């Protein structure tokens, strides 16, 4: 059961990682890229928010992907199961449940990192404008 749960969790974390990495890449619309390349200051907030979200999703995606790789590496060192041993349905259920929890936690973490990054960027902008 434990082996099956770890295998399913590793696959699930790979999916969660891909979700964040794709979201980070697709978060940059052509309009945001245009504004980032030629910044009109009246669009500062939308550009900063989008780039902050991209940074957060990339960071979270990388961390989750690293966790998936570590789990997959750990399963390689696990002793092989008996020949023709059935896949544990309970293990699959546990792996899927932990994956869903990891997705929820990673989305929350991404949102928190986005807000923190945006706050830092806004503070830097205000300091720059006051000079």
What does this structure look like?
This protein has 4 helices and no strands. Helix 1 runs antiparallel to helix 3, helix 1 runs parallel beside helix 4 and helix 2 crosses helix 3. It is mainly alpha-helical. The protein is elongated, with a radius of gyration of 20 Å.
Compute the number of helices.
4
Helical content stands at over 70%
Number of strands: 0
pLDDT averaged residue by residue: 81
Distance between the termini: 62 Å
- Biggest β-sheet, characterized? none
Radius of gyration: 20 Å
- Stretches where pLDDT is under 50 for at least 5 consecutive residues are none
So what's the overall shape? elongated
**Helical/strand content category:** mainly alpha
Spell the H/E element sequence.
Answer: HHHH
Task: Bin the strand percentage.
Answer: under 5%
Please provide a brief summary of the model.
The chain is mostly helical. It has four helices and no strands. Helix 2 (30-37) crosses helix 3.
């Amino acid at each position: 059961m434990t082996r099956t749960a770890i295998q399913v969790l590793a696959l699930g974390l790979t999916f969660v990682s891909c979700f964040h990495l794709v979201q980070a890449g697709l978060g940059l619309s052509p309009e945001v890229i245009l504004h980032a390349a030629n910044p009109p200051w009246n669009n500062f907030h939308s550009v900063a928010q989008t780039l902050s979200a991209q940074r957060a999703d990339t960071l979270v995606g990388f961390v989750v992907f690293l966790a998936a790789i570590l789990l997959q590496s750990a399963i390689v060192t696990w002793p092989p199961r008996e020949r023709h041993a059935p896949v544990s349905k309970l293990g699959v259920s546990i792996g899927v449940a932990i994956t869903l929890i990891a997705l929820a936690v990673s989305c929350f973490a991404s949102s928190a990192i986005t807000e923190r990054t945006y706050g830092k960027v806004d503070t830097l902008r205000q300091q720059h404008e006051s000079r």
